[in-house]
Design a protein that fits this description.
The chain is of the alpha/beta class. It contains 9 helices and 6 strands, in the order H-H-E-H-H-E-H-E-H-E-H-H-E-E-H. It has a single domain, classed as Decaprenyl diphosphate synthase-like (Undecaprenyl pyrophosphate synthetase, 3-Layer(aba) Sandwich), CATH 3.40.1180.10.
């Protein structure tokens, strides 16, 4: 219901949102475990609530001018957590892929997983391959889920391949990084982190060079489509100079 109301309101405001078309929004989905423990629930219950928050955000993203949405689902550093919690996250991800791939296909959403795959369980790797193959032609939204992801590891892998390149340019390196990550590599316009922390945590370090940063106190399960819309609105009011001068500046 909340998403339907937001969709109607957004359609009425479409001219105001037009400037935000083709946005790449990346989100560090932090706070699932703390959300659960504050409610005397298991941490896995928090991750399931976080998966539902992700579904809500994914459904509204195209209506806000977002063309690429990258969600940080599992960091490579998260393997340090209790094995039962990591297993629950991987199981939830597999269930999501099995349940939502048909929806992605119907809605024109292209789904990719960025990050390492060699440490993932075989059934999950199979679900990833199936989801990516079925949704490969989606053009309405490029949804990227970062799983067992480390920006430093991706950059190291890309650098290990790039030393053989003949075209030594930032653009060429970006192409190699896109190949390493499998799900592409494009500049991030808006980086959101929920949960109250204010750090990048090894997420999309190359792509976030000029991203606008939004740190949100809400924990991820409480993050709503309206929150995303409000952030997009605020982003539209910011002037992105990327090192240049503001339009009104004159000397």
């Amino acid at each position: 219901m909340q998403f339907q109301l937001l969709q109607k309101e957004t359609s009425r405001q479409q001219p105001a949102l037009r400037a935000a078309a083709q946005l790449h929004v990346a989100i560090i989905c932090d706070g699932n475990g703390r959300w659960a423990t504050s409610r005397f629930l298991s941490r896995s219950a928090g991750h399931r609530a976080g998966a539902q928050a992700a579904r809500n955000v994914i459904r509204c993203a195209p209506h806000l001018g977002i063309h690429t949405l990258t969600l940080f689902a599992l960091s490579s550093a998260d393997w340090k957590r209790p094995p039962a919690e990591v297993a629950a996250i991987l199981q939830i991800l597999r269930e999501y892929l099995e349940e939502e791939t048909s929806h992605c296909l119907d809605q024109g959403i292209r789904l990719n997983i960025i990050g390492r795959r060699d440490r993932l369980p075989a059934p999950l790797r199979e679900a990833i391959a199936d989801a990516e193959a079925l949704t490969a032609k989606g053009s309405k939204l490029h949804l990227r889920l970062a799983v067992d992801y480390s920006a430093r590891h991706s950059l190291f892998q890309a650098a290990s391949k790039f030393y053989k390149a003949t075209d030594l340019s930032a653009e060429a390196f970006g192409d190699v990084l896109a190949e390493v990550q499998r799900g592409g590599s494009t500049d991030v316009d808006v980086l959101i982190r929920t949960g109250g922390e204010q750090r990048l945590s090894d997420f999309l370090l190359w792509e976030c060079a000029f991203a606008e940063l939004f740190f949100f106190a809400k924990r991820w399960p409480d993050f709503t489509p309206k929150d995303l819309r409000d952030i997009v609105r605020e982003f539209e009011q910011r002037e992105r100079t990327c090192g240049g001068l503001p339009r009104e500046a004159s000397y």
